Amino acid sequence: MNHQTVLDAATNSDDPGNPGVLATGVPREDAKRYRELGAWTGDTHWALFRRAVDSWPTETAATDRHRTVTWSDLDAGVSRAAAVLAGAGVGRGDGVIIQLPNSVAYLETVFAVWRLGAIPVFSLPAHGSAEIRHFASHAPARFYVSTATPNRHLARVHRDIADLAGTVTMILVDEASPWEGADALPVPDAASVPSEELAFLQLSGGTTGVPKQIPKTHDDYLYSVRASVEVCDLRHSDVLLVALPASHNFTMSSPGILGAVQVGASIVFAADPMPTEVLPLIAEHGVTHLALVPPALLSLLNFPGRDAYDVSSVRTVWVGGAKLSEAAARRVRPELGWTLQQVFGMAEGLVNYTPLDASIEEIVSTQGRPMSPWDEIRVVDDEDVDVPEGEPGNLLTRGPYTIRRYHRAPEVNARSFTEDGFYRTGDIVVFREGTLTVVGRAKDQINRGGEKIAPEAVENILLTHDTVHDVSVVGVPDEVLGEKIRAFVIPRQDAASDPAAHGLTPTKLRKFAREAGLSSFAVPDLIDIVAEFPLTGVGKVSKKAQQG
Ligand code: OOB
User: Where in the chain is the domain with CATH 3.40.50.980?
Assistant: First the structure.
Protein backbone atom coordinates (compact mmCIF):
# COMPACT_ATOMS: atom_id res chain seq x y z
CA MET A 1 0.00 0.00 0.00
CA ASN A 2 1.30 3.44 -0.83
CA HIS A 3 0.58 5.68 2.16
CA GLN A 4 0.50 9.33 1.56
CA THR A 5 0.72 10.67 5.07
CA VAL A 6 2.21 9.30 8.24
CA LEU A 7 -1.15 9.78 9.92
CA ASP A 8 -2.89 7.32 7.57
CA ALA A 9 0.00 4.91 8.01
CA ALA A 10 -0.24 5.10 11.79
CA THR A 11 -3.92 4.31 12.00
CA ASN A 12 -4.06 1.71 9.27
CA SER A 13 -0.80 -0.12 9.67
CA ASP A 14 -0.75 -3.06 12.07
CA ASP A 15 -4.44 -3.29 12.53
CA PRO A 16 -6.11 -2.34 9.28
CA GLY A 17 -9.50 -0.99 10.00
CA ASN A 18 -9.28 -1.55 13.75
CA PRO A 19 -10.79 1.57 15.23
CA GLY A 20 -10.45 0.02 18.70
CA VAL A 21 -6.86 1.12 19.25
CA LEU A 22 -4.94 4.41 19.02
CA ALA A 23 -1.73 4.87 16.99
CA THR A 24 0.22 3.76 20.07
CA GLY A 25 -1.73 0.50 20.21
CA VAL A 26 -3.53 1.61 23.39
CA PRO A 27 -7.10 0.24 23.33
CA ARG A 28 -9.82 2.86 23.45
CA GLU A 29 -11.21 1.48 26.70
CA ASP A 30 -7.83 2.07 28.38
CA ALA A 31 -7.63 5.52 26.82
CA LYS A 32 -11.00 6.26 28.43
CA ARG A 33 -9.67 5.10 31.82
CA TYR A 34 -6.52 7.27 31.53
CA ARG A 35 -8.81 10.22 30.82
CA GLU A 36 -11.04 9.45 33.79
CA LEU A 37 -7.99 9.20 36.03
CA GLY A 38 -6.99 12.69 34.91
CA ALA A 39 -3.74 11.53 33.33
CA TRP A 40 -4.82 12.43 29.81
CA THR A 41 -6.27 15.91 29.66
CA GLY A 42 -6.95 16.64 26.00
CA ASP A 43 -3.95 18.97 25.74
CA THR A 44 -1.92 19.20 22.52
CA HIS A 45 1.67 20.29 21.88
CA TRP A 46 0.48 23.32 19.97
CA ALA A 47 -1.84 24.36 22.81
CA LEU A 48 1.04 23.94 25.28
CA PHE A 49 3.15 26.30 23.20
CA ARG A 50 0.34 28.86 22.82
CA ARG A 51 -0.13 28.99 26.59
CA ALA A 52 3.58 29.75 27.10
CA VAL A 53 3.48 32.53 24.49
CA ASP A 54 0.31 34.04 25.97
CA SER A 55 1.54 33.78 29.57
CA TRP A 56 5.08 35.16 29.29
CA PRO A 57 5.37 37.01 25.94
CA THR A 58 8.22 39.32 26.94
CA GLU A 59 10.28 36.87 28.97
CA THR A 60 13.30 35.03 27.57
CA ALA A 61 12.33 31.72 26.00
CA ALA A 62 15.52 30.43 24.42
CA THR A 63 19.13 31.18 23.55
CA ASP A 64 21.63 29.64 21.18
CA ARG A 65 24.97 30.90 19.94
CA HIS A 66 23.27 33.04 17.29
CA ARG A 67 20.36 34.65 19.12
CA THR A 68 18.19 35.07 22.20
CA VAL A 69 14.41 35.12 21.78
CA THR A 70 11.42 35.92 23.98
CA TRP A 71 8.32 33.74 23.84
CA SER A 72 6.68 36.20 21.48
CA ASP A 73 9.81 36.30 19.28
CA LEU A 74 9.70 32.53 19.25
CA ASP A 75 6.03 32.64 18.26
CA ALA A 76 6.92 34.94 15.37
CA GLY A 77 9.72 32.56 14.37
CA VAL A 78 7.30 29.62 14.48
CA SER A 79 4.89 31.51 12.21
CA ARG A 80 7.68 32.19 9.72
CA ALA A 81 8.77 28.57 9.88
CA ALA A 82 5.17 27.44 9.34
CA ALA A 83 4.92 29.73 6.28
CA VAL A 84 8.10 28.28 4.78
CA LEU A 85 7.12 24.68 5.52
CA ALA A 86 3.60 25.15 4.18
CA GLY A 87 5.11 26.86 1.13
CA ALA A 88 7.20 23.72 0.56
CA GLY A 89 4.01 21.66 0.68
CA VAL A 90 3.86 20.43 4.28
CA GLY A 91 0.26 19.87 5.31
CA ARG A 92 -1.97 18.06 7.73
CA GLY A 93 -0.72 14.58 8.66
CA ASP A 94 2.53 14.78 6.69
CA GLY A 95 5.64 13.22 8.18
CA VAL A 96 8.53 15.72 8.49
CA ILE A 97 11.95 14.28 9.33
CA ILE A 98 13.83 16.71 11.56
CA GLN A 99 17.62 16.39 11.68
CA LEU A 100 18.84 19.67 13.17
CA PRO A 101 21.56 20.64 15.62
CA ASN A 102 20.54 22.05 19.01
CA SER A 103 19.25 25.54 18.23
CA VAL A 104 16.36 27.97 18.46
CA ALA A 105 15.64 27.00 14.85
CA TYR A 106 15.03 23.45 16.05
CA LEU A 107 12.29 24.73 18.41
CA GLU A 108 10.79 26.84 15.62
CA THR A 109 10.70 23.86 13.28
CA VAL A 110 9.12 21.43 15.71
CA PHE A 111 6.39 23.81 16.85
CA ALA A 112 5.73 24.94 13.26
CA VAL A 113 5.21 21.32 12.24
CA TRP A 114 2.72 20.91 15.09
CA ARG A 115 1.03 24.18 14.16
CA LEU A 116 0.40 22.78 10.69
CA GLY A 117 -1.04 19.55 12.12
CA ALA A 118 1.88 17.68 10.56
CA ILE A 119 3.94 15.02 12.33
CA PRO A 120 7.59 15.43 13.38
CA VAL A 121 9.69 12.35 12.64
CA PHE A 122 12.61 12.81 15.00
CA SER A 123 16.14 11.85 14.10
CA LEU A 124 19.51 12.58 15.71
CA PRO A 125 22.15 14.76 14.01
CA ALA A 126 24.46 11.71 14.21
CA HIS A 127 22.09 9.49 12.22
CA GLY A 128 23.39 8.34 8.85
CA SER A 129 21.69 8.29 5.47
CA ALA A 130 20.68 4.65 6.05
CA GLU A 131 18.43 5.73 8.94
CA ILE A 132 17.07 8.77 7.11
CA ARG A 133 16.15 6.63 4.11
CA HIS A 134 14.39 4.19 6.38
CA PHE A 135 12.43 6.94 8.15
CA ALA A 136 11.40 8.45 4.80
CA SER A 137 10.01 5.20 3.42
CA HIS A 138 8.71 3.70 6.62
CA ALA A 139 7.01 6.66 8.37
CA PRO A 140 6.45 7.62 5.53
CA ALA A 141 7.84 11.14 5.41
CA ARG A 142 7.90 13.35 2.33
CA PHE A 143 9.81 16.20 3.99
CA TYR A 144 13.25 16.47 5.54
CA VAL A 145 14.42 19.53 7.51
CA SER A 146 18.12 19.91 8.26
CA THR A 147 20.81 22.55 8.58
CA ALA A 148 22.14 24.75 5.78
CA THR A 149 25.52 24.83 7.56
CA PRO A 150 26.21 21.10 7.96
CA ASN A 151 29.25 19.52 9.56
CA ARG A 152 31.08 16.85 7.55
CA HIS A 153 28.78 14.07 8.67
CA LEU A 154 25.57 15.94 7.83
CA ALA A 155 27.01 17.16 4.53
CA ARG A 156 27.53 13.50 3.62
CA VAL A 157 23.97 12.65 4.67
CA HIS A 158 22.57 15.45 2.50
CA ARG A 159 24.64 14.27 -0.46
CA ASP A 160 23.70 10.63 0.04
CA ILE A 161 19.96 11.26 0.14
CA ALA A 162 19.97 13.67 -2.81
CA ASP A 163 18.56 10.85 -4.97
CA LEU A 164 15.34 10.94 -2.91
CA ALA A 165 14.59 14.36 -4.40
CA GLY A 166 11.61 13.03 -6.35
CA THR A 167 9.81 11.88 -3.21
CA VAL A 168 11.37 13.80 -0.31
CA THR A 169 11.53 17.59 -0.25
CA MET A 170 14.69 18.81 1.51
CA ILE A 171 14.40 22.06 3.47
CA LEU A 172 17.71 23.43 4.72
CA VAL A 173 17.65 25.98 7.52
CA ASP A 174 20.38 28.49 8.36
CA GLU A 175 20.23 28.62 12.16
CA ALA A 176 21.82 32.09 12.23
CA SER A 177 19.08 33.69 10.12
CA PRO A 178 16.40 31.12 9.40
CA TRP A 179 13.19 31.23 7.38
CA GLU A 180 14.33 33.69 4.75
CA GLY A 181 11.62 34.38 2.26
CA ALA A 182 8.89 33.82 4.86
CA ASP A 183 7.69 37.43 4.58
CA ALA A 184 6.38 36.86 1.09
CA LEU A 185 4.39 33.79 2.15
CA PRO A 186 1.01 33.49 3.86
CA VAL A 187 1.03 32.11 7.42
CA PRO A 188 -1.46 29.25 7.51
CA ASP A 189 -3.97 29.01 10.37
CA ALA A 190 -3.17 26.60 13.16
CA ALA A 191 -4.69 23.20 12.41
CA SER A 192 -7.24 21.73 14.76
CA VAL A 193 -5.79 18.46 16.03
CA PRO A 194 -7.40 15.84 18.31
CA SER A 195 -5.28 15.13 21.39
CA GLU A 196 -5.55 11.36 20.93
CA GLU A 197 -3.99 11.55 17.48
CA LEU A 198 -0.42 10.57 16.61
CA ALA A 199 1.72 13.58 17.66
CA PHE A 200 5.14 12.45 16.38
CA LEU A 201 7.40 9.49 15.75
CA GLN A 202 10.27 9.16 18.19
CA LEU A 203 13.41 7.16 17.56
CA SER A 204 14.15 4.02 19.51
CA GLY A 205 17.37 2.42 20.62
CA GLY A 206 17.98 -0.32 18.11
CA THR A 207 17.89 -4.03 18.69
CA THR A 208 17.20 -4.96 15.08
CA GLY A 209 18.72 -4.16 11.71
CA VAL A 210 16.27 -1.37 11.00
CA PRO A 211 15.49 1.25 13.64
CA LYS A 212 12.03 1.06 15.18
CA GLN A 213 9.82 4.12 15.30
CA ILE A 214 7.81 4.98 18.37
CA PRO A 215 4.37 6.54 17.97
CA LYS A 216 3.24 9.01 20.64
CA THR A 217 -0.05 10.83 21.01
CA HIS A 218 -0.43 14.34 22.42
CA ASP A 219 -2.35 12.98 25.41
CA ASP A 220 0.18 10.40 26.51
CA TYR A 221 3.35 12.40 25.88
CA LEU A 222 2.14 15.57 27.57
CA TYR A 223 1.08 13.47 30.55
CA SER A 224 4.67 12.20 30.78
CA VAL A 225 5.93 15.79 30.71
CA ARG A 226 3.55 16.88 33.50
CA ALA A 227 4.46 13.82 35.58
CA SER A 228 8.16 14.64 35.12
CA VAL A 229 7.67 18.27 36.13
CA GLU A 230 5.94 17.04 39.27
CA VAL A 231 8.83 14.89 40.48
CA CYS A 232 11.51 17.38 39.41
CA ASP A 233 12.14 20.91 40.63
CA LEU A 234 12.06 22.80 37.31
CA ARG A 235 10.27 26.12 37.91
CA HIS A 236 9.26 29.22 36.00
CA SER A 237 12.35 31.28 36.88
CA ASP A 238 14.76 28.45 36.02
CA VAL A 239 17.25 28.07 33.17
CA LEU A 240 17.51 24.70 31.45
CA LEU A 241 20.70 23.81 29.58
CA VAL A 242 20.06 21.50 26.61
CA ALA A 243 23.38 19.78 25.92
CA LEU A 244 22.28 16.33 24.71
CA PRO A 245 20.68 16.08 21.25
CA ALA A 246 17.41 18.04 21.46
CA SER A 247 15.26 15.42 19.76
CA HIS A 248 16.13 12.58 22.14
CA ASN A 249 13.27 11.56 24.39
CA PHE A 250 15.32 12.32 27.53
CA THR A 251 16.03 15.87 26.29
CA MET A 252 12.50 16.47 25.04
CA SER A 253 10.45 15.32 27.99
CA SER A 254 12.32 14.35 31.14
CA PRO A 255 11.28 17.06 31.96
CA GLY A 256 13.34 18.60 29.21
CA ILE A 257 12.39 21.10 26.56
CA LEU A 258 8.65 20.47 26.85
CA GLY A 259 8.85 20.71 30.65
CA ALA A 260 10.49 24.12 30.19
CA VAL A 261 7.68 25.17 27.83
CA GLN A 262 5.12 23.99 30.38
CA VAL A 263 6.54 26.05 33.26
CA GLY A 264 8.03 28.88 31.18
CA ALA A 265 11.65 28.21 32.13
CA SER A 266 14.18 29.52 29.62
CA ILE A 267 16.17 27.15 27.43
CA VAL A 268 19.88 27.51 26.62
CA PHE A 269 21.15 25.36 23.77
CA ALA A 270 24.66 23.93 23.91
CA ALA A 271 26.18 22.48 20.75
CA ASP A 272 27.40 19.40 22.64
CA PRO A 273 27.85 18.14 26.22
CA MET A 274 31.65 18.65 26.39
CA PRO A 275 32.92 20.56 29.47
CA THR A 276 34.44 23.31 27.31
CA GLU A 277 30.99 24.02 25.86
CA VAL A 278 28.87 23.40 28.95
CA LEU A 279 30.87 25.15 31.70
CA PRO A 280 31.00 28.65 30.13
CA LEU A 281 27.28 28.47 29.31
CA ILE A 282 26.40 27.53 32.90
CA ALA A 283 28.40 30.47 34.22
CA GLU A 284 27.15 32.94 31.62
CA HIS A 285 23.43 32.12 31.82
CA GLY A 286 23.04 31.06 35.44
CA VAL A 287 21.88 27.61 34.39
CA THR A 288 19.85 25.83 37.09
CA HIS A 289 19.23 22.42 35.46
CA LEU A 290 20.84 20.14 32.91
CA ALA A 291 20.56 16.57 31.68
CA LEU A 292 23.62 14.45 30.92
CA VAL A 293 24.54 10.91 29.98
CA PRO A 294 27.06 9.23 32.33
CA PRO A 295 30.18 9.82 30.16
CA ALA A 296 29.38 13.54 29.92
CA LEU A 297 29.01 13.75 33.69
CA LEU A 298 32.36 11.95 34.09
CA SER A 299 34.03 14.40 31.70
CA LEU A 300 32.70 17.30 33.79
CA LEU A 301 33.83 15.71 37.05
CA ASN A 302 37.31 15.05 35.68
CA PHE A 303 37.79 18.30 33.72
CA PRO A 304 40.95 20.00 35.03
CA GLY A 305 39.86 23.59 34.36
CA ARG A 306 36.48 23.29 36.09
CA ASP A 307 37.28 25.51 39.06
CA ALA A 308 37.63 28.52 36.77
CA TYR A 309 33.84 28.48 36.23
CA ASP A 310 31.11 29.41 38.66
CA VAL A 311 28.64 26.52 38.52
CA SER A 312 26.86 27.33 41.77
CA SER A 313 23.65 28.33 39.97
CA VAL A 314 22.94 24.68 39.11
CA ARG A 315 20.48 22.98 41.45
CA THR A 316 19.85 19.64 39.75
CA VAL A 317 21.57 17.44 37.20
CA TRP A 318 19.58 14.60 35.63
CA VAL A 319 21.73 11.67 34.57
CA GLY A 320 20.39 8.79 32.53
CA GLY A 321 20.46 6.93 29.24
CA ALA A 322 22.91 4.36 30.56
CA LYS A 323 23.89 3.06 33.96
CA LEU A 324 25.72 5.58 36.12
CA SER A 325 28.40 4.04 38.29
CA GLU A 326 27.88 4.44 41.99
CA ALA A 327 31.40 5.88 42.31
CA ALA A 328 30.64 8.71 39.88
CA ALA A 329 27.20 9.31 41.43
CA ARG A 330 28.79 9.78 44.85
CA ARG A 331 31.05 12.57 43.58
CA VAL A 332 28.26 14.84 42.30
CA ARG A 333 27.19 16.53 45.53
CA PRO A 334 30.63 17.02 47.15
CA GLU A 335 32.50 18.04 43.99
CA LEU A 336 29.88 19.99 42.05
CA GLY A 337 27.45 20.98 44.80
CA TRP A 338 24.51 19.81 42.67
CA THR A 339 21.61 17.51 43.46
CA LEU A 340 21.66 14.35 41.37
CA GLN A 341 18.50 12.81 40.00
CA GLN A 342 19.13 9.52 38.22
CA VAL A 343 16.75 9.01 35.32
CA PHE A 344 16.09 5.53 33.99
CA GLY A 345 13.84 6.03 31.01
CA MET A 346 13.06 4.69 27.59
CA ALA A 347 11.60 6.30 24.51
CA GLU A 348 8.92 3.61 24.56
CA GLY A 349 7.54 5.09 27.78
CA LEU A 350 8.32 4.30 31.43
CA VAL A 351 10.51 6.90 33.16
CA ASN A 352 11.92 6.50 36.68
CA TYR A 353 13.57 9.17 38.81
CA THR A 354 15.34 9.05 42.12
CA PRO A 355 13.27 11.41 44.31
CA LEU A 356 14.89 14.77 45.11
CA ASP A 357 14.58 14.08 48.83
CA ALA A 358 15.70 10.42 48.72
CA SER A 359 18.54 9.27 50.95
CA ILE A 360 22.00 9.59 49.44
CA GLU A 361 22.23 5.78 49.31
CA GLU A 362 19.05 5.56 47.22
CA ILE A 363 20.26 8.35 44.93
CA VAL A 364 23.65 6.78 44.21
CA SER A 365 22.69 3.11 44.09
CA THR A 366 19.25 2.92 42.43
CA GLN A 367 17.80 4.10 39.13
CA GLY A 368 14.74 5.55 40.76
CA ARG A 369 11.00 5.01 41.09
CA PRO A 370 8.33 4.94 38.38
CA MET A 371 7.15 8.54 38.03
CA SER A 372 3.45 7.76 37.65
CA PRO A 373 1.18 5.98 40.13
CA TRP A 374 -0.34 4.28 37.07
CA ASP A 375 2.91 2.79 35.78
CA GLU A 376 2.53 -0.98 36.02
CA ILE A 377 5.75 -2.89 36.73
CA ARG A 378 6.38 -6.62 36.42
CA VAL A 379 9.70 -8.38 36.97
CA VAL A 380 9.64 -11.85 35.43
CA ASP A 381 11.84 -14.82 34.60
CA ASP A 382 12.36 -16.06 31.05
CA GLU A 383 9.02 -17.89 31.17
CA ASP A 384 7.19 -14.67 32.08
CA VAL A 385 6.62 -15.86 35.65
CA ASP A 386 6.93 -13.12 38.27
CA VAL A 387 10.08 -13.43 40.40
CA PRO A 388 9.97 -12.73 44.17
CA GLU A 389 10.56 -9.08 45.14
CA GLY A 390 14.26 -8.25 45.33
CA GLU A 391 15.34 -10.90 42.80
CA PRO A 392 16.66 -9.91 39.37
CA GLY A 393 14.38 -10.44 36.40
CA ASN A 394 13.17 -9.00 33.11
CA LEU A 395 11.38 -5.69 33.44
CA LEU A 396 7.94 -5.50 31.79
CA THR A 397 5.87 -2.33 31.94
CA ARG A 398 2.54 -0.86 30.88
CA GLY A 399 0.96 2.48 31.65
CA PRO A 400 -0.48 5.81 30.53
CA TYR A 401 2.57 6.90 28.50
CA THR A 402 4.04 3.56 27.41
CA ILE A 403 3.39 2.39 23.87
CA ARG A 404 1.82 -0.97 23.12
CA ARG A 405 3.22 -1.24 19.64
CA TYR A 406 5.88 0.22 17.36
CA HIS A 407 4.90 2.04 14.21
CA ARG A 408 4.21 -0.44 11.39
CA ALA A 409 6.25 -3.34 12.74
CA PRO A 410 3.95 -6.33 13.40
CA GLU A 411 6.75 -8.89 13.71
CA VAL A 412 8.82 -6.85 16.13
CA ASN A 413 5.65 -6.05 18.05
CA ALA A 414 4.86 -9.71 18.59
CA ARG A 415 8.26 -10.09 20.28
CA SER A 416 8.40 -6.79 22.13
CA PHE A 417 5.02 -6.77 23.86
CA THR A 418 3.06 -9.33 25.86
CA GLU A 419 -0.44 -10.20 24.74
CA ASP A 420 -1.89 -7.95 27.42
CA GLY A 421 0.19 -5.00 26.25
CA PHE A 422 3.22 -4.95 28.56
CA TYR A 423 6.40 -3.66 26.89
CA ARG A 424 9.38 -6.02 27.22
CA THR A 425 12.10 -3.50 28.08
CA GLY A 426 15.02 -5.93 27.68
CA ASP A 427 16.42 -4.57 30.95
CA ILE A 428 17.22 -6.83 33.87
CA VAL A 429 16.29 -5.11 37.12
CA VAL A 430 15.77 -5.59 40.80
CA PHE A 431 12.57 -4.03 42.16
CA ARG A 432 12.66 -3.44 45.89
CA GLU A 433 10.37 -1.25 47.98
CA GLY A 434 9.25 0.70 44.97
CA THR A 435 12.75 1.38 43.60
CA LEU A 436 14.36 -0.07 40.50
CA THR A 437 18.01 -0.97 40.10
CA VAL A 438 19.25 -1.88 36.63
CA VAL A 439 21.55 -4.90 36.93
CA GLY A 440 21.88 -6.06 33.35
CA ARG A 441 20.43 -6.33 29.88
CA ALA A 442 18.76 -9.17 28.01
CA LYS A 443 18.41 -7.37 24.66
CA ASP A 444 20.93 -7.53 21.83
CA GLN A 445 21.92 -3.89 22.04
CA ILE A 446 25.10 -1.95 22.70
CA ASN A 447 24.76 1.08 24.99
CA ARG A 448 27.63 3.35 24.05
CA GLY A 449 27.39 6.11 26.63
CA GLY A 450 23.62 6.37 26.17
CA GLU A 451 23.61 5.91 22.38
CA LYS A 452 21.88 2.65 21.57
CA ILE A 453 23.29 0.51 18.76
CA ALA A 454 21.92 -2.70 17.24
CA PRO A 455 24.88 -5.01 16.47
CA GLU A 456 22.85 -6.38 13.56
CA ALA A 457 22.65 -2.95 11.91
CA VAL A 458 26.43 -2.56 12.01
CA GLU A 459 26.95 -6.14 10.81
CA ASN A 460 24.57 -5.63 7.89
CA ILE A 461 26.51 -2.59 6.68
CA LEU A 462 29.97 -4.20 6.97
CA LEU A 463 28.67 -7.31 5.19
CA THR A 464 28.07 -5.24 2.05
CA HIS A 465 31.86 -4.77 1.71
CA ASP A 466 33.21 -6.74 -1.28
CA THR A 467 35.95 -8.60 0.54
CA VAL A 468 34.10 -9.28 3.81
CA HIS A 469 32.97 -12.86 4.37
CA ASP A 470 31.41 -12.56 7.84
CA VAL A 471 31.06 -10.03 10.66
CA SER A 472 30.24 -10.23 14.35
CA VAL A 473 29.72 -7.04 16.36
CA VAL A 474 29.75 -6.90 20.15
CA GLY A 475 29.89 -4.35 22.95
CA VAL A 476 33.07 -4.45 25.03
CA PRO A 477 33.46 -2.75 28.43
CA ASP A 478 34.87 0.78 28.44
CA GLU A 479 35.65 2.85 31.50
CA VAL A 480 34.21 6.11 30.16
CA LEU A 481 31.50 5.10 27.71
CA GLY A 482 30.35 2.00 29.57
CA GLU A 483 30.64 0.08 26.31
CA LYS A 484 32.48 0.43 23.02
CA ILE A 485 31.69 -1.22 19.70
CA ARG A 486 34.03 -3.99 18.55
CA ALA A 487 33.69 -5.70 15.18
CA PHE A 488 35.29 -9.02 14.28
CA VAL A 489 35.64 -9.41 10.52
CA ILE A 490 36.49 -12.55 8.53
CA PRO A 491 37.82 -11.74 5.01
CA ARG A 492 36.67 -13.62 1.92
CA GLN A 493 38.90 -16.53 0.98
CA ASP A 494 40.73 -14.74 -1.84
CA ALA A 495 41.65 -11.89 0.53
CA ALA A 496 42.43 -14.02 3.55
CA SER A 497 46.17 -14.31 3.06
CA ASP A 498 46.72 -10.56 2.77
CA PRO A 499 43.57 -8.63 3.80
CA ALA A 500 45.31 -5.23 3.73
CA ALA A 501 46.24 -5.69 0.07
CA HIS A 502 42.51 -6.06 -0.61
CA GLY A 503 41.62 -2.86 1.22
CA LEU A 504 40.63 -4.63 4.41
CA THR A 505 42.16 -2.56 7.21
CA PRO A 506 40.35 -1.23 10.30
CA THR A 507 40.74 2.36 9.10
CA LYS A 508 39.39 1.62 5.63
CA LEU A 509 36.51 -0.41 7.02
CA ARG A 510 35.52 2.41 9.35
CA LYS A 511 35.56 4.83 6.43
CA PHE A 512 33.50 2.35 4.40
CA ALA A 513 30.91 2.13 7.21
CA ARG A 514 30.60 5.91 7.40
CA GLU A 515 30.24 6.23 3.65
CA ALA A 516 27.67 3.45 3.57
CA GLY A 517 25.41 5.64 5.71
CA LEU A 518 25.95 4.30 9.21
CA SER A 519 25.23 6.66 12.14
CA SER A 520 28.44 8.29 13.33
CA PHE A 521 28.04 6.82 16.83
CA ALA A 522 27.60 3.29 15.41
CA VAL A 523 30.93 3.14 13.56
CA PRO A 524 33.00 0.43 15.36
CA ASP A 525 35.62 1.75 17.78
CA LEU A 526 37.70 -1.41 17.34
CA ILE A 527 37.96 -3.72 14.35
CA ASP A 528 39.74 -7.07 14.37
CA ILE A 529 40.41 -8.91 11.12
CA VAL A 530 40.28 -12.56 12.10
CA ALA A 531 40.36 -16.01 10.47
CA GLU A 532 37.39 -17.40 12.42
CA PHE A 533 34.96 -16.70 15.26
CA PRO A 534 34.92 -18.52 18.58
CA LEU A 535 31.95 -20.91 18.63
CA THR A 536 29.62 -22.10 21.37
CA GLY A 537 28.99 -25.77 22.10
CA VAL A 538 26.16 -25.86 19.54
CA GLY A 539 28.25 -24.12 16.90
CA LYS A 540 26.85 -20.58 17.13
CA VAL A 541 29.15 -17.56 17.21
CA SER A 542 30.05 -16.99 20.85
CA LYS A 543 29.59 -13.27 21.34
CA LYS A 544 30.40 -13.84 24.99
CA ALA A 545 33.90 -15.07 24.11
CA GLN A 546 34.34 -12.08 21.78
CA GLN A 547 33.48 -9.68 24.60
CA GLY A 548 36.57 -11.01 26.36
C1 OOB B 1 16.68 6.69 27.23
O2 OOB B 1 15.89 6.19 26.23
P3 OOB B 1 16.35 5.19 25.08
O4 OOB B 1 15.12 4.77 24.38
O5 OOB B 1 17.46 5.79 24.29
O6 OOB B 1 17.01 3.92 25.81
C7 OOB B 1 16.31 3.17 26.77
C8 OOB B 1 17.23 2.15 27.39
C9 OOB B 1 16.65 1.46 28.60
O10 OOB B 1 15.80 0.39 28.24
C11 OOB B 1 17.92 1.00 29.29
O12 OOB B 1 18.44 -0.13 28.65
C13 OOB B 1 18.87 2.16 29.07
O14 OOB B 1 18.42 2.78 27.88
N15 OOB B 1 18.85 3.15 30.16
C16 OOB B 1 19.47 3.00 31.37
C17 OOB B 1 19.23 4.19 32.08
N18 OOB B 1 18.49 5.01 31.29
C19 OOB B 1 18.28 4.36 30.14
N20 OOB B 1 20.16 1.97 31.89
C21 OOB B 1 20.64 2.12 33.17
N22 OOB B 1 20.46 3.25 33.90
C23 OOB B 1 19.76 4.31 33.40
N24 OOB B 1 19.59 5.42 34.16
O25 OOB B 1 17.84 6.35 27.37
C26 OOB B 1 16.02 7.65 28.16
C27 OOB B 1 14.74 8.12 27.88
C28 OOB B 1 14.12 9.02 28.75
C29 OOB B 1 14.81 9.45 29.88
C30 OOB B 1 16.09 9.00 30.13
C31 OOB B 1 16.70 8.10 29.28
Answer: 45-62+69-192
